[in-house]
Specification:
It is built from 8 helices and 12 strands. The protein is of the alpha/beta class and about 230 residues long. The chain has 2 domains: about 120 residues, Response regulator (Rossmann fold, 3-Layer(aba) Sandwich), CATH 3.40.50.2300; about 100 residues, Arc Repressor Mutant, subunit A. Strands 2-1-3-4-5 form a 5-stranded parallel sheet, sandwiched between helices. It has a 4-stranded antiparallel sheet with strand order 6-7-8-9, covered by helices on one side. Strands 10-12-11 form a 3-stranded antiparallel sheet. α2 packs parallel to α3. The longest helix is centred in the middle third of the chain and has 20 residues. The radius of gyration is 20 Å and the shape is elongated. The termini are far apart. About 25% of the residues are buried.
Length: about 230
């Protein structure tokens, strides 16, 4: 089940971090190792899709708790595991209050970490199984898993960002989708440049839907946009 699973590992001890990365890679995980909190946040916001984060609590520049808080502003669902040399109850409580899914005190058995990761990912995949993947948008049908937009016999394969944007709009059909929500969820950042990028993709998706005049993506000034149907 760990095939193609991408992990962000934030650990400031280069030796321990390398050993842990190698162990996870031997178990078929893809691991990005960051040696401080700021580097880890940059990596998380780089556009790469991570399935899980393993965060050391005590790190330079940005500690694990602050890093977790920043990550949670971008992705409220991604599983988080804290690593710490401390065993203080207050630290554990703080970690769970920040949305940690699990907690390990150093030193720990690597197999225990592997077990915890697999348990968390099994739960996450189970939640994803319940997600809606097929949407009716006017005369269109959209398969978000395959990223196929269909109108009659005509099919169009969307790019990953086009597909994610249309899925977000379809999930919130007729309701406002805030710009900040779309940017943080899909682009992992909300700034001028990602905003311009999103506008380009939004224009593409709007063009794809133009063959049904009863479907439209409406801009809501200074707030966001909504996908509307005139049924």
């Amino acid at each position: 089940m760990s095939k193609n699973i991408s992990v962000l590992l934030a650990e400031d001890d280069p030796n321990f971090g390398s050993v842990l990365r190698d162990y996870l890679e031997l178990n078929d995980f893809e691991v990005s190792l960051a040696t401080d909190g700021l580097e880890a946040l940059r990596e998380f916001k780089s556009g790469k899709e991570f399935d899980l984060c393993i965060l050391d609590v005590m790190m330079p520049h940005k500690d694990g708790f602050t890093l977790a808080s920043d990550i949670r502003k971008i992705d409220t669902e991604i599983p988080l595991i804290f690593l710490t040399a401390k065993s203080m109850k207050e630290d554990m409580l703080k970690g769970f209050q920040l949305g940690a899914d699990d907690y390990l005190t150093k030193p720990f058995d690597s197999e225990v970490l592997l077990y915890k990761i697999k348990a968390l990912l099994s739960r996450k995949l189970g939640d994803q199984d319940e997600e809606q993947t097929h949407f009716k948008i006017g005369r269109f049908e959209y398969d978000s898993e395959m990223r196929i937009l269909k109108l009659g016999k005509d099919e169009r394969k969307l790019s990953p960002k086009e597909g994610a944007l249309l899925k977000l709009l379809a999930e919130n059909k007729n309701n406002l989708v805030k710009r900040s929500t779309a940017l943080n969820k899909i682009w992992k950042d909300d700034n001028y440049f990602t905003g311009r990028s999103m506008d380009v993709y939004l224009a593409k998706v709007r063009k794809y839907l133009k063959d049904d005049p009863k479907v439209a993506i409406v801009n809501v000034h200074s707030e966001g946009f909504r996908l509307v149907e005139d049924l």
